[in-house]
Design a protein that fits this description.
- The structure holds two protein chains of two kinds.
- By secondary structure, chain A is of the alpha/beta class.
- Chain A has 14 helices and 16 strands.
- In chain A, helix 6 (105-122) packs parallel to helix 12 (328-366), helix 7 crosses helix 8 and helix 12 crosses helix 14 (422-436).
- The longest helix of chain A is centred in the C-terminal third of the chain and has 39 residues, at 328-366.
- Chain B is of the alpha/beta class.
- Chain B has three domains: 5-56, no CATH class; 80-334, Aspartate Aminotransferase, domain 2; 344-466, Alpha-Beta Complex (Aspartate Aminotransferase, domain 1).
- In chain B, strand 4 (203-209), helix 9 (221-230) and strand 5 (234-239) form a beta-alpha-beta unit.
- The longest helix of chain B is centred in the C-terminal third of the chain and has 37 residues, at 323-359.
- Chain B is globular and about 75 Å long.
- The model of chain B has no long low-confidence stretch (mean pLDDT 96).
- Classes of the chains: A alpha/beta, B alpha/beta.
- Chains A and B meet through helix 1, helix 2, helix 3, helix 5 and helix 6 of A and helix 2, helix 3, helix 4, helix 5 and helix 6 of B.
């Protein structure tokens, strides 16, 4: 079996002898009535080679598609080698939360840089060090806006359904009323929103581009929301911000999102990266870790976890959130990704996503895959399908292509990123022409 | 002094170049187009490599040295775990692929869930929660759902010991509960008499860490469980300290109804400088219906993903949890097996007691009976008499390359240092640390200033955290 206890049996006995105790003495604090008087019903340990064989057999039962046209919250992008290698540095991987600042300057600085990059993308003043994922980021953002007077949260029905459910789950026992804003032609129904403004409205949450890939009328929504002094929360795809307006530009108060597209594998849903950024007047409501710049005794620039009076280890039940462990290593990876891309590279990623998706959509239209909503979109779009979505999924699967996500029997949510080559797009079109006949 | 990556940036430098694409869809919509500059760093590949290697040298992980950070179980993170988590069949599968194309992933997660059931004595697990605190919150919602399903709606309080992690009361509050604190007794366990006076028909649950944050196994656990259950409440187990008891005792057998584990502690997955962790939640049979959507379940002899279930508490996040972290934990369980898990716990207890015994003549052990996997010393006397604090001792440890213990926690011990050596450290490492602690103690008696000046060998000297909070600088701004 794999052996991670370094001390030999003899050394263990010697240690016991040195402290004048026996194994029985050490285990004596566990009352007889709750001891497990048998072995665990698990197989005995095995060598690392056997473990690898077992795990590889599980991995082999999963199909890795060559071409992925499915997004819906998880996006396959190209990940540079330099990101994979640097993020695997053991000092980053095997460190705990940087409580001891003097020993953790590397981690603290990397988070400070991450926070800066998130603010660059979103136009905001402050970012936390990350939360679990995009869906929980939305839920935490809603909690930030609620107070005694404002207890109503309105969620666009065009949010990722998982984000909606997560918000509902998070708030179910809190004094927060969550309501859903209906959708009109794939976009938020602005007239409905205008008719449902109240003085106790805490926030309006939209996703942009929304779950169906569509760009919302962010400025108009912002104007309406702010007419009641409620907060506007927007969940954004960080890649899209290289070409589309940053949330600050249209007046969003909190920008959150799923940063998995920034250098993280799709990995069957995790670990991913929830980011949260806001304006300086709301910083102290942000949940989780925040890194700040300060000085050391010699007056040298240094970094440290800060504004901790918000957090659970100080405020216990009065804390803004119970968040403790976050997704720091994913944040580090995202910062490495953004650095490796730079402003020009990231724009290239975003614009290739945009153009390839729009190209595919136009060609699909010619094959009678009709665009469901005639709205501006980024790299995802919904079409009806001339044959059943099942048939499409199965046909493409035979050619190692993961089709768009079926929304029902005759509707599909497609996604194209820069990771899909021009050649692959032409192959997809040829196969879809075959299957549609 | 190392530059920020933004200071290294030089206009026009490039690192990664994408494949060329001439495909043109539509012109960008002018009304949505970004107008402001995007000031990400512009660097060459050598710049980014040197930058992050430089940062990595100013970070300290388990691989660098001894890390006795109490309640965090900083054990060695096996390399094998990294290799299995990198397998393409795990790393490159989409979470919304057709189920028949991800059978291996479902089997692996099910295997993990079933193994965790056996280790803890629970009936079912969900691996969706992303961290310990997320697991606690999940557990509190499960307990709430259970009571509500029985129309037992007057239960508004959750009792939490004063020695508990801050996440416990915070998670209970997020689930809408009033938090009631119960004192610890002179032995460090729950004060049974006070608990009796607090338990009522309003009690939804008691949250307990056992062994607790003092490293002590509560000798009254059976009585406590009985008291809570008789009042109609449920027992919640914070698994932060499970590393002390694998194969020796199980929360399920102690009477706990809901359990969360920290796979990034007990099950050797790396902590990544603050995360990702994984905080699976286990339950007894009567709570299974409420497990969140996204949980892997067995249905009609096949594995499936729970979805849109009316009884479920909802979902805690997207998809199925920190999948690759969970893959690492399964790898660890397979590696160690029943014998290795037990051996790990026994040696965690041995190492803690060994250190405690070898330090207790100098350092005041808060509760000096036999400990489990960790123990707490108090620097209160030294602080009063020599003006040397727990923080000073910690900072001096940095100068000998040891990561300090958890400081100032639990809050019931003044000037606390919580020491958790864990089983993957050798006798020589422990002896080296013991000597370092002893030397530091002697310095405290003779030259307190030397400790107050520590550390001297780290990349920066003691940092001013008051300044950081008073005038927050949270992002880099380019000089005007």
């Amino acid at each position: 079996m794999a052996q991670y206890v370094p001390n030999t049996k003899d050394e263990q006995l010697k240690m016991l002898e040195e402290i004048g105790k026996t194994w029985n003495d050490l285990l004596s604090p566990i009352p007889q009535g709750v001891r497990l008087n048998r072995e665990l019903d698990l197989p005995p340990g095995i060598s690392e080679f056997e473990v690898m064989a077992k795990m590889a057999s599980y991995a082999k039962e999963n199909k890795v598609f060559t071409t992925v046209l499915r997004g819906a919250g998880a996006y396959r992008h190209l990940i540079p080698s330099v990101v994979r290698h640097l993020s695997a540095r053991e000092e980053f991987v095997t460190a705990y939360t940087p409580y001891q600042a003097e020993f953790s300057q590397g981690i603290l600085q990397s988070i400070f840089e991450y926070q800066t990059m998130i603010c660059q993308l979103t136009g905001m003043d402050a970012s936390n060090a990350s939360v679990y994922d995009g869906a929980s980021a939305v839920a935490e953002a809603v909690n930030m806006t609620v107070d005694r007077k404002r207890r109503r949260a309105l969620l666009s029905s065009n949010l990722d359904p998982q984000s909606i459910m997560t918000v509902q789950t998070y708030t179910q026992h809190l004094p927060i009323d969550v309501e859903i804003i209906p959708s009109k032609d794939g976009r938020l129904d602005l007239d409905w929103l205008k008719d449902h403004l109240t003085e106790d409205l805490a926030c309006v949450v939209i996703q942009h581009p929304n779950y169906f890939g569509i760009l919302e009328d962010t400025q108009a929504i912002s104007d309406v929301v702010h007419s009641t002094k409620a907060k506007m929360i927007v969940s954004v795809n960080p890649i899209s911000l290289a070409v589309f307006k940053e949330p600050r530009a249209y007046g969003a108060d909190i920008a959150v999102g799923e940063a998995q597209p920034l250098g993280l594998n799709i990995a069957f849903g995790g670990p991913y990266l929830g980011f949260m950024a806001t304006t300086s007047d709301m910083v102290r409501k942000l949940p989780g870790r925040i890194v700040g710049q300060t000085l050391d005794l010699d007056g040298k620039r240094a970094f440290v976890l800060t504004l901790q009076a918000r957090e659970q280890h100080i405020r216990r039940e009065k804390a803004s959130s119970s968040l403790c462990s976050n997704q720091a290593h994913c944040a580090l990876t995202a910062a490495m990704y953004l650095t490796s891309m730079g402003p020009v590279g990231l724009k290239d990623v975003a614009s290739q996503c945009y153009h390839k998706a729009h190209f595919l959509q136009k060609q699909l239209a010619a094959l009678d895959f009709k665009l469901k909503f005639d709205q501006p979109f980024f790299h995802e779009f919904v079409t009806t399908t001339p044959v059943s979505t099942n048939k499409i999924v199965q046909h493409l699967e035979q050619h190692d292509i993961l089709a768009g996500l079926p929304l029902d029997g005759r509707t599909m949510l497609w996604c194209v990123t820069e990771a899909v080559s021009e050649k692959e797009i032409h192959t997809v079109l040829r196969l879809l022409e075959e299957v549609s006949k | 002094m190392s530059n920020l990556i933004f200071e290294t940036s030089r206009e026009g430098r490039r690192c990664v170049i994408l494949p060329t694409s001439v495909m043109h869809g539509d012109d960008l919509y002018p009304e949505f187009t970004r107008e402001s500059a995007l000031e990400l760093p512009e660097v060459a590949e050598i710049d980014i490599v040197r930058h992050y290697i430089g940062l990595s040298r100013k970070a300290h992980g388990v691989d660098n040295g001894f890390y006795p950070l109490g309640s965090c179980t900083m054990k060695y993170n096996p390399r094998l775990n990294e290799d299995t988590a990198s397998l393409a069949g795990f790393a490159h599968i989409h979470p919304l692929q057709p189920v028949h194309t991800v059978n291996g992933a479902l089997k692996a997660l099910w295997h993990l869930q079933q193994s965790l059931c056996e280790v803890t004595g629970m009936d079912a697990f969900t691996v969706q929660p992303a961290a310990g605190a997320h697991g606690e919150f999940t557990g509190m919602l499960l307990i709430n759902a259970y009571h509500q399903s029985r129309k037992d709606t007057a239960r508004t309080q959750v009792i939490v010991p004063d020695s508990a992690h801050g996440t416990n009361p915070a998670s209970a509050a997020m689930a809408g509960y009033e938090v009631i604190s119960v004192k610890s007794n002179e032995k460090g366990g729950v004060d049974i008499d006070e608990l009796r006076s607090l338990v009522s028909e309003k009690t939804a649950a008691l949250m307990l860490t056992n062994p607790n944050t003092l490293g002590l196994f509560d000798e009254n656990i059976k009585e406590i469980a009985q008291m809570i259950h008789e009042a109609g409440g449920l027992l919640y187990y914070d698994g932060a300290n499970l590393n002390a008891i694998m194969g020796l005792s199980r929360p399920g057998d102690m009477g706990f109804d809901v359990v969360h584990l920290n796979l990034h502690k007990t099950f050797s997955t790396p902590h990544g400088g603050g995360g990702p962790g994984s905080g699976p939640v286990g339950v007894k049979k009567r709570l299974i219906p409420f497990l969140p959507n996204g949980t892997i379940i067995a249905k009609d002899d096949a594995l499936a993903i729970k979805n849109d279930d009316e009884l479920a508490i909802g979902r805690m996040r997207s998809f199925y949890g920190n999948f690759l972290t969970n893959i690492r934990a399964l790898t660890y369980i397979l590696s160690l097996g029943r014998d290795g898990l037990k051996e790990a716990s026994m040696n965690a207890v041995l190492n803690a007691n060994y250190m405690m015994e070898k330090l207790k003549d100098l350092y005041t052990v808060a509760y000096p009976s036999t400990c489990m996997h960790e123990f707490v010393v108090s620097m209160e006397k030294e602080k009063d008499e020599y003006n040397v604090s727990a923080k000073d001792v910690s900072k001096a440890l940095l100068d000998v390359g040891i990561h300090p213990p958890t400081m100032y926690f639990p809050q019931i011990v003044h000037e606390a240092l919580m020491i958790e050596p864990n089983e993957t450290e050798s006798k020589e490492t422990l002896d080296f640390a013991i000597q370092a602690f002893r030397d530091i103690y002697h310095t405290a008696m003779t030259d307190g200033q030397a400790l107050r000046d520590a550390p001297l060998t780290t990349p920066v000297k003691r940092v001013d955290d008051v300044l950081a909070a008073r005038s927050p600088i949270l992002i880099y701004k380019k000089p005007e």
